[in-house]
Amino acid sequence: RGAFVWPSGARYEGEWLARKPHGRGAYVAPDGCAYDGEWLAGTPNGVGVLTSADRTLRYTGRLHNGVCDGVGGLVCDRSGTSYQGLWARGKPDGRGCQTSIDLRGNARHTDGVWQGGICVVAH
């Protein structure tokens, strides 16, 4: 277990194996984007939380090679939009539900099957 700060200002604190983040750890990029979760050989792999630099976007779920992949949820605090379900290659893909807020403040739910980030079958 340990911490490291790169010349760019990026920093990681957590478990290491063969001089790479491996196990449980937290990383903050120079721009403030952050990841806290499981690592495998220097790459986010497993369950974790990705947060945007301004803290308005948050993904909680499974990642594979640093990309949202598997079961997870994304919340946008600014718009009130969220998606919970399956992901593949960084986009909603498979069964999931998106909730958005219209201009009158009403919630709209789109439950269905997603492909490449687009709802192709709504229930």
Automatic annotation (TrEMBL):
The keyword Cytoplasm does not apply. InterPro entries: MORN (IPR003409). The keyword Nucleus does not apply. Keywords: Repeat. Coiled coil: none annotated. Gene3D superfamilies: Histone H3 K4-specific methyltransferase SET7/9 N-terminal domain. It holds the Pfam family MORN. This is MORN repeat-containing protein 5. It comes from Diacronema lutheri (Unicellular marine alga).
